[in-house]
Specification:
The chain has 2 domains: 140 residues, no CATH class; 207 residues, no CATH class. Helices cover 23% and strands 30% of the residues. The chain contains 9 helices and 19 strands. A 9-stranded antiparallel beta sheet has the order 4-3-2-1-6-7-8-9-5, with helices on one face. The longest helix has 22 residues. It is elongated and about 75 Å long.
């Protein structure tokens, strides 16, 4: 074997050994698809108190529309700009969400292909170029007080067989991850607001009067009148000297305690001011048009407001008297994440406009042996709140709040 041949063999052996070293050394051969596993999603997001706004965009495949919800801290209060700046109860919920996102890690890469986004439901709901309506996820963006983005992601399906895991992707990137997360980012309006609308407990109720009637708008008259009065004493309800149906009664008092607001509409400023002033509604065209459009009919002579679908009057032990008036069907579709369209998800009718008013009587508080001072303060708070808004309630709650006399027997 000549020197040239020996040299050639040595070179070939060196190449083989170098190649083998690359193959067996993991630090030299990690595929790109694993290069960020275990890393934090948002490494620069470290302060759970930093978020001052959150935007959530959900997608409804049935209507092919993206539904946005935005909550932000402005003028020293949390509001929901996407719903007429209705007051939000967001501080604790957003802080909890932020804390969960700070710890969010890229647990496992499941795909590096854009064509797989629909399979995991992480397609961007805001992508106008996408041809498919299926497989779009929920996009969440969290910003600080200077509008700097702290987190921006698309969350998709739950991972089958792995509780607490979901698919997730960062907008603008192809890679889809499997992540373990406890972040509860809702796109439902009712999940971001004060849930105790009336601030009354079933144990504090003393009297409920159900004024059931309908208004024939064509003929301008009230029809199908029926009045039912229920009273509570010593934790027992009475209807004409006998106990009402316990299931129906429980459904009614629970609905009052946990009244669900699924949407809101603002009242005109003039109408709100009239209701806060407690001097009666001024007979202006704007006021009448606004009320009648929602199914409420003011009498310009007596000041009484009638409702398209009747009303209930509720007394609490602290002297408050609530009047809940049920108006027209509220159009506008379902809340994101629910099964309801114009009809309620429980199949019990359509969503309705609700108008709430409250007054206070010290004598009423005394007769019910309640706290008159507390009642007066709460009445002022609630009067200011109720004056600004028409509420929308679910068809299920409407049915529970308006039981017939037969249902109560």
């Amino acid at each position: 074997m000549n020197e040239t041949t020996k040299t050639l063999y040595f070179v070939m052996a060196a190449v083989v050994m170098a190649t083998a070293a690359v193959v067996v050394d993991p630090s030299k051969s990690t595929p790109d698809i694993f290069d960020d596993v275990g890393e934090l999603f948002f490494a620069e997001f470290t302060d759970p108190q930093a978020p001052k706004s959150i935007e959530v965009i959900d997608y409804d495949e049935a209507t092919a529309t993206a539904t946005p919800l935005k909550v932000e801290f402005t003028d020293n209060k949390w509001v929901i700009p996407s719903h007429y700046s209705y007051p939000a109860d967001a501080e604790e919920r957003l802080a909890t969400t932020a804390a969960a996102l700070i710890e969010l890690r890229k647990d496992r890469v499941v795909s590096d292909l854009a064509q797989d986004h629909a399979e995991y439901s992480v397609a961007d709901p805001l992508d106008d170029q996408a041809t498919s309506l299926a497989g779009r996820g929920k996009r969440v963006k969290i910003l600080d007080g200077d509008s700097n983005v702290l987190a921006d992601f698309i969350v998709g399906n739950e991972v089958e067989g792995k509780r607490g895991y979901r698919y997730m992707r960062v907008p603008g990137q192809k890679r889809t991850y499997e992540v373990k997360t406890e972040a509860d980012v809702s796109a439902r309006f009712q999940d971001w607001i004060e849930t105790d609308l009336l601030k009354v407990s079933p144990f504090d109720l003393r009297r409920i009067q159900i004024n059931s009637y309908t208004i024939n708008e064509r003929l301008g008259r009230i029809e199908n009148r029926q009045q039912t009065t229920l009273t509570q004493k010593d934790s027992k309800w009475q209807l004409g000297g006998r106990e009402p149906n316990s299931d129906t009664m429980s459904a009614l008092t629970t609905a009052l305690d946990n009244l669900r607001i699924v949407d809101v509409q603002p009242k005109p400023e003039g109408l709100s001011a009239d209701l806060k002033a407690r001097e009666g509604i001024q007979p202006t065209m704007e006021n009448f048009r606004s009320l009648q459009g929602k199914g409420f009919f003011p009498n310009p002579y007596t000041g009484q407001i009638l409702s398209n679908e009747g009303e209930i009057v509720v007394d609490s032990k602290n002297g408050l008297r609530y009047t809940l008036r049920f108006g027209e069907v509220a159009r506008g579709g379902a809340e994101p994440g629910s099964d309801e369209g114009e009809s309620d998800s429980e199949g019990e009718g359509e969503r309705r406009y609700l108008m709430v008013s409250v007054d206070f009587s010290e004598g009423r508080a005394e007769s019910y042996e309640g706290d008159a001072e507390q009642g007066g303060e709460l009445a002022d708070e609630l009067r200011a709140r109720f004056a600004d808004w028409y509420y929308v309630i679910s068809g299920a709650d409407f049915a529970k709040l308006r039981p017939s006399r037969a249902d109560l027997r």
